[in-house]
Every structure is written in C-alpha cells, then in structure tokens.
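Co-fold these.
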Amino acid sequence: MNTINLTIDKKPVSVPAGTTVLEAARSLGIQIPTLCYLGLHDLNIENKPAGCRICVVEVEGRRNLAPACATDCAEGMVVSTHNIRVLNARRTVMELILSDHPFECLTCAKNGTCDLQSMAQELGIREIHYQGEKSTYRKDTSPSIIRDVDKCILCRRCEMMCNDFQTVGALSGVNRGFQAVVAPAFEMNLEYSSCTYCGQCVAVCPTAALTEVDHTGKVLRALADPGKTVIVQTAPAVRAALGEAFGMEPGTLVTGKMVSALRELGFDHVFDTDFAADLTIMEEGTELLGRLTRFLEGDKQVRLPILTSCCPAWVNFFETYFADMKDIPSTARSPQQMFGSIAKTWFAERIGVNREDLVVVSIMPCLAKKYECQREEFSVDGNPDVDYALTTRELANLIKQANLDLKQLPDSDFDQPMGESTGAAVIFGTTGGVIEAAVRTAYEIHTGKSLNRVDFKELRGLENIRSATVDFNGFPLRIGIAHGLGNARKLLEEIREGKSEYHAIEIMACPGGCIGGGGQPLHHGDSSILKARQKAIYTEDELKVIRKSHENPAIQELYASFLGQPLSEKAHHLLHTHYFEKKKRKVSIG
Amino acid sequence: MLNEETVIRNRAEGGKTSATQLRIALRNCGVIDPEDIEDAIGQGAYAALAKVLADGDPEGTIRTIMDSGLRGRGGGGFPTGLKWQLSARPQADQKYVVCNADEGDPGAFMDRSILEGDPHTVLEAMAICGYCIGATKGLIYIRAEYPLAIERLHIAIRQARDYGFLGEDLFGSGFAFDIEMRYGAGAFVCGEETALIHSMEGLRGEPTLKPPFPSESGYLGKPTNVNNVETFASVPPIILKGAAWFASIGTEKSKGTKVFALAGKINKVGLIEVPMGTTLREVIYEIGGGLQHGKAFKAVQTGGPSGGCLTTAHLDTPIDYDNLIAAGSMMGSGGMIVMDEDDCMVSVAKFFLDFTVEESCGKCTPCRIGNKRLYELLEKITRGQGTREDLDHLYNLSLVIKDTSLCGLGQSSPNPVLSTLHNFRDEYLAHVDEHKCPAGVCRELIRYEIVPENCVGCTACARNCPVNAISGERKQIHFIDQAICIKCGACLEKCKFDAVIIN
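Predicted complex below.
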C-alpha cells in the first residue's frame, strides 16, 4: 500500500493511503473534536456524513475548511487543526447547534453523558451569540423508545445504525433545511414503522433525542407497595457493564455487588436470568436435537437450520421482514419470558403469593425487552409474566438515586432457587454464546458422551458473520453466527433462497450481542469497551463450577417437580411461543 | 447550420456602440420545430455525433472540448473537457452520462428554453460524451415542473431512436447509447451533482463530500459524467466548427458565450446570449435597454440566489467566471437581476437568504442553522432593531458559513449578505444607527405622511385606506394617524397630487 506523507500542526507524519486526516491526527496524539462521527471499526461500523462540521481543519491551499473525519490524507498536505480560523469556525458552528437546542440539561435524561454537553464544555462555550427560532417537533413515544427530536443535532448516527448496520430502515432524513428531522417514513410514529426496538439508535445518539422509555418510577412504586412481592432477574450482560456507570474499568464484573445493590433497593428476591437461560437451553437444545434426529432419519419436511429466538429485536425483525419463514426459528421463549412464566406459576405457588401480587422486574441490556414483556401472548388475563424491564442504565440511575456506592458494596449471592445457573447461561450475553451453550448440552445428550473441553473457541469472536463445524459423533453440525440484523439478513436470505448450509444459526440484533445492547452504558464509539465486556463474560463462565445447562441442579429439580420433560405439554404451554406476521401495520401520521 | 445568420444584432437606443448577442447554445431555439427531428437535422443536428463516430477518436474529441476552453455552464465553471477526461479514465463495466436539467434559480429558464426549443442538441451531445468516456447509458435529471420540456424530450428521444441516433449501433459504428429520464421534485440542492445523483438513486437529495467525485463513483457507484443542459448544447457546434473557433470567442479564461436571464428593473427582460467578456454595462444598457422609468441603477445581482450584488463600480467589468468571483459574486447559472434606487439592499439580501433557507437540505449545521440565523439577523435589521454588534455577527457568521458548509449551496449562500455589507454598508448603517430605510422599503422604518401644501382634500386617500387611519373633511387637509397606519401604501398609490410621501 502507498504511504502518504503530510504535516499536521507542523508535525510530519506518514500514513497508509486512504487514512483520513482525523485518523492521522490521532496517530500523532492530536485530538480533533468530533460530534457526528462514530467509528466502531472492529464491527465495520462507521458514520461520517461530514454534517456537523465540528471537526473542520485548515488544509493549506484549499479555499474552505475540510472536515477531518471524511477527508483523506494527500501527499504533501499541510494541515492545521487548531489555528485561529479553525477555532473560530468550530466555536461558531457549536454556537449554531446550541442556538437550536432546548436548554433542559438539568432535567435531561442524558445530563452528564451527553456528547453535545461535553463538546460545549470542551470548546469553552460560555455565550451563544446567535439566537433565534428553535425547531420544534412532536414527541413520539413507543413501547421501548422515545423520540424527542427537538434535541436532535442531525448527526445521523441513528440512521446509519438503523439502515446500514441493521438494515431495518425505520429512520431517515425527512423535510428540508431548518425543518429537517430524522423520522420514520411519512413521519409516522416509531411504533407503526418497521422499528425492531433494538435500541442501537439510542446507543449511538449523542444527545437525548433518542432515549429509552424510563420505567424506574413504576418499579419504585411497586417496591414501595407493601402488598406486592417484587422479584428481580438480571440478564448476563448487565453484570459485565454496570460497573462502567460507576467509573469502573470496562470489563469489570460486578455480579455480587449488583446483587447486593438490588437487595438494598428492596427487591424481595434477587434472581438471575441465567437460571432461565439454562432452561432455554434445555428446551431449545431439545428442539434442535428433535429436528436434527428427524433430519437424519430422512424426514424431508423438517425445517433446518433452526434459529435461536432469545433476542426480541431479532424476533421483531423476522416477523417484519421474513414472516414467510416464521416456522424456522425455535419456538422457545427468551430467557426473560421463561423466567417470568416460571416465576408467576411455579415460584408464586412455592411462596404462596397470588400472581397479581407478584411483580417481576427484569434488568436487561436491551430496549426490545421492554416491548417483549408487553406482548399479549406473554400475559395471563392481562397480567404480564414480566411486569417491567429496566435497562442497565436505568438500574445504574436507580442505584445512584438510592445513594448506594456500587464500588463499596459487598459481594453477595443470588437467591435460590431461581438464582442458580451455569457458565453456559452466562455466555448468553455475548455473540456466539447461546449456540455454544446449546452445543455443550446438545452434544452430550446426542452422543451420550461427556465433553472433555467445554470451550468452543471456534464460535467466539466479533466478526460480523462466523461459522464453525462441530463433530456430533461423526455428524458434522454446521453452525452459523451473526450479530447485527444486517448480517442476520444475509443468512436469512441464503435460507430463503435454499442456499444455506447451516443446521443451526444464532442471531443477536446488537453488535457484539447483548454486551453491546441498546440499554447498556454508552460506549461513545469505543469498541474496546465491547471487547472488554465480552472478555468479562467468558471469565465469569470459566469461574463457574457447573458449565453445562443440563447439569444445573435447580433446573433438574424444576423438571422433576413441575415441568416433567423438555418439550412436555406443560413446557410447551409455559416456555414456548408462536410468531406473527408484522407486515400489515396500522399507519398513523401526525 | 450555424452561420453568421444566427448572429443577431441588437442596436441600443440612440444607435451608439452595439453590444452583440451571439447565439450558440440557443442557436436553434425559435428556429426549428422542436417536435420535428427533420427540422433539427436540417439545422445540422446529429452531424457532430456522426463526425465524432466517423473519426473514431474519443481521446481526440475530448481534446477538442478541452482546447475549446468550454467550462461548466451550471455555475461551477469546471473545464468540461477535463471532466470528460476524468470520467473516461476509470475502467468500469458501466458508466453514465447525466444531464443536469434541475434548473432551480428563481427567474432562470435558459435550460428550459433549450430543452423546449432544441432538445436534440442535448441528446446529441450526451451521446458524444458517452462515446468519449465509454458510457452507453444517459440519464436526464429534470424537474417535474417542466412538463413541456419533458414532453418534448420524450418526443425527441423517440424520434432519435427511430432515426438510429440513439439505441444500438449508432451510424453503423457499433457504439450503443440510449437515454432515460429521471424526474426531480424541484429541490434547489439537487442541482448539486452529488445530491442529484442520490436523488436519481431514490435516496434523499443530499450532497455528499467530494472526493469521491462522480467521475470515479457516481450513479450507482459507477463513473458518471454530469453536465448542465447549456454545457451540452455548446458541444455540437464546437465539434462542427472546431475548438479554435469557440476559443476565439470570449476572454482569456472564459471561452464562448453565456446565456443570461435578465430580470428586475430593466426595460427588456428575458434570455440573452452574449460572448464572455461583454461588460455588465453593455448587457444592462444596450441589450437590456437600461432601467425602467429612467430610474438610477443601483445594483445588479448575478449568479442566482447565492450570487453577489455588484454596483456601478463594476459596470465596466467584462463578464467571465473569474472576474465575477473577484468582484464578490459568481457566474452561477446566469441569473441577472437589476435593481434601481428604490431597492433596499438589506431587504434584497434578506430576500435571497429566504430562498436559501428554504432550499437548504439541512444536512450540515452551518447551512441548516447558520442561514436561518443570518436571515433572522437581517430581519432584525430591517425592523430597525439591529445593532452595530449585529453587523459584526452578520459578517462573522457569513464567513464561517462559507468556510464550513458541505456543498456549494452553503458555501455561496452568504454572498448576497457579504456583497451588500461590503458595497452598501451605508444602507445597513442607516437601518441600524438611524433606524431608517433610505430606499423606503422596510415597512417598520417608514412613515406615510401627507404634505399639507399638496393636499387638496379630495378624500381619495381616506376612502381607500383599509384601516381608516386617515382623517380630514372634504377640501380640507388630511392627516394620517401613525398609530393606526399599517403602511400598505394604498394612499400613496391613490393620491393624484403627490401629497402622500414616504418619510
């Protein structure tokens, strides 16, 4: 590759051709401020519309200033990143953005984590010289996501995630000039668009233009109600990220501290979604083996590959775009919903509490979980199996509100019986984890042999689409893994065209899987944070004594005393679901 | 065929020096029946294409266009031959020739006139370009508000196909080229070539950063050559008459002719085509017949809504790309609006800003919010509420918008502000310091008053006042109550005795 020599702020630098001025400057330790730019290069995610114009720099011989994020280095280029002309332009542009922004910082959901706020601080803006009309737009609230377009700075990161990475196409630029907004087609409400509630738009939004629907108030009210028994479940990815909200290093596991915090907050039982993840493996793994056995016996009708169904955004995606194939995914409910279902039947009975008086709260790295727990099929006589799903961010806020210092809290264990889990369940939190957990169990059941090694490293990583073949007693089980719905779409289209070579596919909607979920502490474009969380998840797995779902004693007891066998009638009733075509949606404009 | 007969001479009144119109791009407009290809062929249509295909030397043809000195007539002024050469360079399985017919400047209609009057010249030039750069497909991006141009293009494309001038194996050369139409919804920004390409692709009409230039990655990611209608219309004559002929017309760096749309307070409005280097004075006073009602010339705005306002000091400037830019304006697509002593330059700047605010796509901050703030500052000044500090803000913001905007729209939108601030600063100061509008245009800064000496008490003003602000008995001197007056000007219009004045 050609090498380009240039000078940035009087410092010579050589970079490979195709390097942007921004990247070259960073390699010299020169930080050019950016706002609309977002790069998660390990995941092939990049947003550089060159729209905000904060990163402009002076290039000698060029008439106007150049956006560093989208300008390639050229031989002999002489760049100034912080001279007076640049500083004046940058501050003026920042003042313009602020002149069209509501000053609600004190009550804003993003207060303290807002990129715009930090940038205003960084640029030392104390006065806004340009004042005038502010653009206003209606608020749009969906089951998971709130759009407050008045706070939008048109960085278009959400659009890039939704269209390019997820290929969902729910958001795009609408209207012109000062009236331009990012909105669903025909400016319909998000609820009626093709939105899957994956929340990746929220995860990358620099301001509070896109936020989760906050349920902490409702949870507090339930906790304060002496007539309610309130129990909580925590998803595996939460423990690998929660610490970040308290200034801990990314990748710090805070499982025990999190349990203490939840207990302090007044939850009557602190349980683990991992328990339900082990249950999921029992059901989904058995379903996989069932289909596989029929396939090996020559059944031509059997639908393979089987697809995982734990990810609610992914379920929404195939219900919208691949409804013709809705018999392919596993019918197993997600761990969140299995937990809720078992909690409000088996567990409620055990502790002698009425279903109506039991409140199930889940702590999730996810926004789609908020929608999932509101799905009609996951309720009995209007009473939902899971009452409220909070995100990792909401939990962090709740802990802070209660004046608890997570760092100082002692470690404690989950309550029993729904707190017992295996290493197989923990790895649900990362891309590749569900299928690895399923393989650990399915292998042993299918072959009748005990696994010597439980680590299937070939299934791990962060590449967008991965594949591996596992030897099932002479039968090569071909496995596909995709994270990000755009990558999932590729595998789905192969299946639709009859070209798929896989027997089982795991799909997670978010980059990195749940560790990169839309409800996690913000990564601000730093993909090393996702890597650290992934590493933490695998560490937790290794630290577990039991690492295969079918060896979880609490699960064994649940089947013995209540469910019978996997895929039993009772299991079908409580732990499985069916899917709907989402094409014909009501369109509402305005 | 093009010959001296098509040169039309306009004699200025008084018969002094004569400014010459020379019709190259408009040569057939009004001369041929645009719906009859045979009429066009009779005037030489497709002879240039035949020549190019017979020569079989695309590189040579590109050299001819380069040597002619033809520059983009859409406003940018990029050398056309160089653009073709850049598009010819990349290897690709498919390339495109795009005709930019998204004419959006208010009051400009040169492209529409060419498409309506001589559609075949555009088709022919696109085929020539296709042959030179190795493209077999052409696309005309035209605004849907041009129904007649669209209809005539459809007829022309059909006829050209019937005659074998479009389609497979043109003139037995083996070269295939065909043209399709794409319709725009009339967004000004879609005249910017990257925005135009995105619009054709079905995406939002927004510009993207160049590079990559369309010549490397354009329509559907393929090398694409985008030229404006008028540019294409100049190509066949260059092929037939030679580069030297074209280069002999015009100035050192701007060759050939340019079509202008004359508008405003001028006696003869409409399209003119003059050699580059003609002075503004010649255009305004000789071809345009001077100002209406013998009023004094104040300014001329060239280059469309984002051009600058030039003054009497610039009247003898020969018009070409570089001189106009040096004077603080631009060629643009050729709009030319003449203003007289009754025009308020602050209001004029506000008027043009209003257009760019409306037409900004909203992608980049300076254009989306900056232009809005510029407009608001101008409005504040025209209401008499501006301060000297606001003038500083106006200036700084204009410079930053030019310096930081993503595309040509934002990079040029402050021109009307900067040029009027520079050339008519005293008018701004009158608004700001004295709260007066010297031209008597800004409503909040003027008073309608009755001059007692002239009032005969005819009651015409009082009877026509829509808000009953005027009192006075018949044959008595009338009086306007400023507290009630809405400054509509009806009294001034009705008074036959010059008794109503603006103060």
